[in-house]
Design a protein that fits this description.
α2 packs across α4. The protein starts with a helix and ends in a 10-residue tail after the last strand. Strands 1-2-5-4-3-6 form a 6-stranded antiparallel β-barrel. It has a 5-stranded parallel β-sheet with strand order 9-8-7-10-11, sandwiched between helices. The chain is globular and about 65 Å long. By secondary structure, the chain is α/β, with parallel strands linked by helices. The relative contact order is 0.11. Bound molecules: protoporphyrin IX containing FE. Protoporphyrin IX containing FE binds next to α4, α5, α6 and α7.
Length: about 375
């Protein structure tokens, strides 16, 4: 339990750290990877280059520090991050390393302003915050369907739209695929040629059909310096019959509305993936589902065959493509057609799309807390904490 004085110091110094946040986290990652290059086998290098993970970690530590009197307030966000940590195999023994280099970075950037008293307070606070993550992740490791990364054989690959491919894999080792939940993802680990490090990425399941396989979809991300290492490896250098490493399914994005509620499943781009799994599952249950997918043009829409089939098969489902080149941006005027007081909203896509949709929802008096959402990117960067 932190002393009253420690908590006061932490809360008072949050604004200074916020001011220097980007600098501190840059120094933190540089020094940490110099001392522990093995961590480059866990961290995502594309995110590092774009500074995404830097911001996510810094924001989370600072958000947690603001709530140091009541860390329970950040638990819903920690839960989502903890799932990702478990899927990436972040372990308890990694926390002191992150703590050490975070504190060293604060000292290096703030210099004399970071007195011993301030540094001691932050050391204690980090320990407290880390213990919330560690205990939540411990439970997740115990419940995981298998240990670490295991080998799977690719049994099918299909093009989906212009930028995505779907993959079907089955275990090469003796392990049982657990009951899967729509909204979950798996984590793929590859070792690209000409790269000394392993690379990891999460991919959502597009179907949770229980037939002994895992089915996930991969969007080919970026180009040149900004290319997504895993997605390029999977798209360009992987064929049917190859083996890839996958860790056990994870994630807390699932349909949890009561029977009788209508659903709006709203996605853009690769965000369609978990939504398709949810659609398939909920359509069977007879629930009224409005499925709206935003993309550039009809040629870009992934899983058109599956979506057409479901749309034709179930009277309780309507599938709409909102095509930006044809229909412009999706605005509150269109959104209101699919929403009434009995609608539960599920939203998935990139950070930019989410920001825009939340602005449109605000015009309909719908706030973030009314929406179940999963951004393809750090959730804390758009969550109001
Ligand atoms: C991802 C926070 C400790 C490795 C993340 C994300 C956040 C975060 C907010 C982004 C999640 C998302 O995409 O939604 C924290 C906090 C920590 C902590 C507050 C300490 C209290 C650690 C440790 C490790 C680690 C000890 C391992 C050494 C990662 C990795 C990712 C990640 C590899 C995936 C993103 C990427 O590769 O760039 N963490 N984390 N984290 N974290 Fe942590």
């Amino acid at each position: 339990m932190l002393s009253e004085q420690t908590r006061e110091i932490v809360k008072q110094t949050v604004p200074v750290l916020e001011q220097h946040g980007t600098e501190i986290t840059k120094v933190f990652y540089t020094r940490m990877f110099e001392a522990h290059p093995e961590l480059l086998n866990i961290f995502n290098k594309s995110n590092q280059k774009q500074g995404k993970q830097q911001t996510a970690l810094a924001q989370t530590v600072l958000a947690a520090a603001k709530h140091i009197d009541n860390l329970g307030a950040i638990v819903p966000n920690v839960n989502q991050i903890a799932h990702k940590h478990r899927a990436l195999q972040v372990k308890e023994e990694h926390y002191p390393i992150v703590g050490e280099y975070l504190l060293k970075a604060i000292k290096e950037v703030l210099g004399d302003a970071a007195t011993d008293e301030i540094m001691n307070a932050w050391e204690e606070a980090y320990g407290e915050i880390a213990s919330v993550f560690i205990s939540m992740e411990k439970e997740m490791y115990e419940k995981a369907a298998w240990d670490g990364f295991q080998l799977f054989k690719i049994t099918n690959i299909l093009n989906q739209g212009t930028t995505m491919k779907s993959f079907e894999v089955e275990p090469e080792v003796a392990l049982e695929i657990p009951e899967l939940a729509a909204g979950q993802y798996i984590t793929v680990r590859v070792k690209p040629e000409n790269d000394e490090n392993l690379a990891l990425r999460h991919y959502s399941l597009y179907s949770v059909e229980n037939d002994g396989t895992l089915k996930f979809a991969v969007k080919k991300e970026g180009t040149g310096e900004k290319k997504g290492i895993v997605s390029h490896e999977l798209h360009d250098n992987t064929s049917i019959g190859d083996s890839i490493e996958i860790s056990a399914p994870a994630g807390d994005f699932k349909v949890n509305s009561e029977a009788g509620k209508e659903l709006l499943l709203l996605s853009s781009g690769a965000g369609v993936t978990p939504m398709l799994a949810m659609l398939e599952d909920e359509a069977k249950k007879g629930r009224q589902v409005h499925f709206v997918h935003v993309n550039e043009s009809e040629a870009d829409v992934p899983f058109k065959t599956e979506l057409t089939e479901i749309n034709e098969k179930y009277d309780n489902v309507d599938v709409t493509y909102h095509l930006k080149l044809r229909d412009g941006y999706l605005t509150s005027d269109s959104l209101q057609h699919w929403i009434n007081e009995n609608t539960d909203i599920y939203l998935c896509g990139g950070i930019l799309f989410m920001d825009t949709i939340f602005d449109e929802f605000a015009k309909l008096n719908i706030s973030q807390s009314d929406v179940n959402f999963e951004p393809f990117g750090p959730k804390m960067s758009i969550t109001n904490v």
